[in-house]
Specification:
The complex is a heterodimer of chains A (262) and B (348). Chain A is mainly alpha-helical and 262 residues long. Helices cover 79% and strands 0% of the residues of chain A. Chain A has 2 domains: 31 residues; 221 residues, Orthogonal Bundle (MetI-like fold), CATH 1.10.3720.10. In chain A, helix 13 packs antiparallel against helix 14. Chain A is globular. The two termini of chain A are 44 Å apart. With 348 residues, chain B is of the alpha+beta class. Chain B has 2 domains: 230 residues, Rossmann fold (3-Layer(aba) Sandwich); 111 residues, RNA polymerase II/Efflux pump adaptor protein, barrel-sandwich hybrid domain (OB fold (Dihydrolipoamide Acetyltransferase, E2P), Beta Barrel), CATH 2.40.50.100. In chain B, helix 2 crosses helix 3 and helix 2 runs parallel beside helix 4. The longest helix of chain B is centred in the middle third of the chain and has 18 residues. Chain B is globular and about 75 Å long. Chain B starts with a strand and ends with a strand. The chains are: A mainly alpha (262), B alpha+beta (348). Chains A and B meet through helix 9 and helix 10 of A and strand 6 and helix 2 of B.
């Protein structure tokens, strides 16, 4: 008889338990209220507002992340410059920083510095407004976009651009016509992750934009507010929507992200 | 005409040192050198990817040292094709023409012509990843030649291909060069490509061009020990080739040699490795197809091995062990017999 492989049994067992635990947790949330109660909560004005605000802020922050991260990632992947290592480390910093700390820092920047005050006088108020939510999401999430795009650009041989340049492209055209189209899977994967993280962003947004019902109430804020005052059904409907979004974005990431790595 | 004058570039790992080289119009120049010799950096500097540290490049009377790549009229083909994966074969080939704002019907016509010449016209609608290595390299070559470049750079274009595909594509390159008279610089570390393609050959080492000449000159008269060791081909002959009973019979200055290798053309180069030739003072009882009698011209003692040059109509270099040499008691002027198998005769 063949010797049973103990190591395999134990390690597979651990992985299986973990998977089952995650599934149970998700099902618990989704099945807690009755379907009718869930439906009426989801269609309530408050949750509708939270969905709308979450989508608008997360789409805006994702677009801004792409605009910031793509050029920086390209520079870090292609060029050598003074201080490159330092830049590489520091741009990853927000990943390691607790979001609450990032939020406090942003609050200080926009609330107390001349730059923040100048922006407020010019009409761009970030403290306790939806704009603050966007800024908080961008600050916390752009490292995801940056890391994914950096590894994507690094995986594309610069020789494609060399060939494109001998075929009549300027530097910018070579990037636009060759490297960016080749980086599509990275862009999709990075965009989806950044957007999903943006939808779920809580800590930094709470610090900078506050938790005001029907004003800065995104889905996670709504979950927090309703949980604190015992509105369990509303809280859980917000949680359910967040779960659906997470599952869907994970699927898109796995399906279209190719070999992209974080 | 391209002239490269005292070109230097230091990229750390790879360097180019004071390279000076002239390539004439319509010439097929092969640059040969070991890995890391600075072959690719030379081509990429020519293409304008990096600015040189010093030196000048003049193409058809125009100083292109500081010109951006797109204004040089130089096309480049890499070993690993570098076809754009998001474009079809036709879009890849037409990429450069589209950048030049050539009218669509003209692009289509030129793409079709180039594809037909390289026998990939049935693949135009496909994406590169669905093509074999040989087909991808044909597409990459087509993409380069539709630009009608003043200079075509080929960076080890055949190295990633398997034996038979390589052989076929090598013939295609020759045909392409003959048909369009393009000036070519072809970088390789493979000797066969030198014999079958090169009008002239340059040997590069450590970023320096150490010898330039016709393949005959460089291979027969290496100007330094490095070239001699690197190209190190002895028993190199030029002759005319005829088919005979499924074998090739090559006539070199009146001496006939039989080879199992088949040649592409009538004028061929032949080599026999010195260690594959048998030598003896008595007639050799062997079934080897090539047997000659001759006279020992020269004996060079290299310690463990001894190099014996035998005149049997052509000069053959034979490498034997010291022990064998002592047992036979050979001396210069002795009459000897030599023999080698038809399979030992390489044809290029």
């Amino acid at each position: 008889m063949r010797q049973p492989n103990l190591l395999k049994a134990v390690t597979v067992g651990v992985a299986a338990c973990l998977t089952i635990f995650i599934i149970i947790l998700l099902l618990l949330v989704v099945t807690h209220p009755s379907p009718a109660a869930l439906l009426s909560s989801i269609t309530s004005r408050e949750i509708q507002f939270a969905v709308y605000l979450s989508i608008v802020t997360s789409v805006a922050s994702t677009v801004i992340c792409i605009l910031i991260a793509v050029p920086s990632a390209y520079a870090l992947a292609r060029y050598d410059f003074f201080g490159k290592n330092a830049v590489n480390t520091i741009v990853d910093m927000p990943l390691a920083l607790p979001p609450l700390v990032a939020g406090v820092a942003l609050l200080l920047f926009f609330g107390t510095t001349p730059i923040g005050k100048g922006l407020a006088e010019a009409g761009l108020v970030f403290v306790f407004t939806p704009l603050g939510i966007v800024v908080a999401q961008v600050f916390v999430n752009f490292p995801f976009m940056l890391r994914i795009m950096r590894s994507t650009f690094e995986s594309i041989s610069p020789r494609y651009e060399y060939v494109a340049k001998t075929l009549g492209c300027t530097d910018v055209q070579a990037l636009w016509q060759v490297t960016l189209p080749m980086a599509t899977s990275g862009l999709i994967a990075g965009g989806v992750i950044t957007w999903a993280k943006g939808i779920g962003e809580f800590g930094a947004a709470l610090m900078l934009a506050g938790a005001t019902r029907m004003k800065t109430e995104t889905l996670p804020i709504s979950l927090f507010l309703n949980m604190s005052c015992g509105e369990l059904e509303l809280a859980i409907s917000a949680a359910t929507i967040l779960i659906v979004i997470s599952v869907a974005s994970l699927y898109v990431f796995e399906r279209y992200g190719g070999s992209t790595s974080l | 005409m391209l002239s490269i004058e005292h070109l230097s570039k230091d990229m750390g790992e790879f360097v180019l040192k004071d390279a000076t080289l002239q390539v004439n119009d319509g010439e097929y120049m092969v640059i040969i050198g070991p890995t890391g010799a600075g072959k690719t950096i030379l081509l990429e500097t020519l293409a304008g990817i990096y600015p040189p540290d010093s030196g000048r490049m003049v193409l058809d009377g125009r100083d292109i040292t500081d010109a951006p790549p797109r204004e040089r009229r130089i096309s480049m083909v890499y070993q690993d094709y570098m076809l754009f994966p998001h474009l079809t074969v036709a879009e890849n080939i037409g990429f450069g023409l589209r950048n030049q704002k050539v009218a669509q019907p003209e692009i289509e016509q030129k793409v079709a012509e180039a594809a037909q010449f390289l026998s990939i016209d049935h693949l135009l609608h496909r994406y590169p990843e669905t093509l074999s290595g040989g087909e991808q390299q044909r597409a990459a070559i087509a993409r380069a030649v539709v630009m009608e470049p003043a200079l075509l750079l080929l960076d080890e274009p055949l190295s990633a291909l398997d034996g038979r595909t390589r052989e076929k594509l090598r013939r295609e390159l020759r045909r392409l060069h003959d048909a369009y008279g393009i000036t070519v610089i072809h970088v390789t570390h493979n000797f066969e490509e030198v014999f079958s393609l090169a009008d002239r050959v340059a040997v590069i080492r450590g970023g320096e061009i150490v010898q330039v000449g016709t393949p005959d000159e460089v291979f027969r008269k290496p100007n330094c020990e490095f070239v001699a060791n690197f190209v190190g081909v002895e028993n190199l002959f030029r002759g005319t080739c005829a088919r005979k009973e499924g074998l090739s019979e090559v006539t070199i200055e009146g001496v006939k040699m039989v080879s199992t290798a088949l040649a592409d053309s009538e004028m061929v180069c032949v080599t026999i490795r010195p260690e594959e030739i048998l030598i003896s003072p008595q007639p050799i009882g062997s079934c080897a197809r090539n047997q000659y009698s001759g006279m020992v011209q020269e004996i060079a003692d290299h310690g463990v091995t001894v190099r014996v040059t035998v005149d049997c109509g052509v000069s053959l270099v034979v490498l034997i062990t010291r022990q064998g040499y002592l047992e036979m008691g050979l001396a210069e002027g002795d009459a000897v017999f030599v023999a080698f198998k038809a399979s030992s005769v390489q044809i290029f």
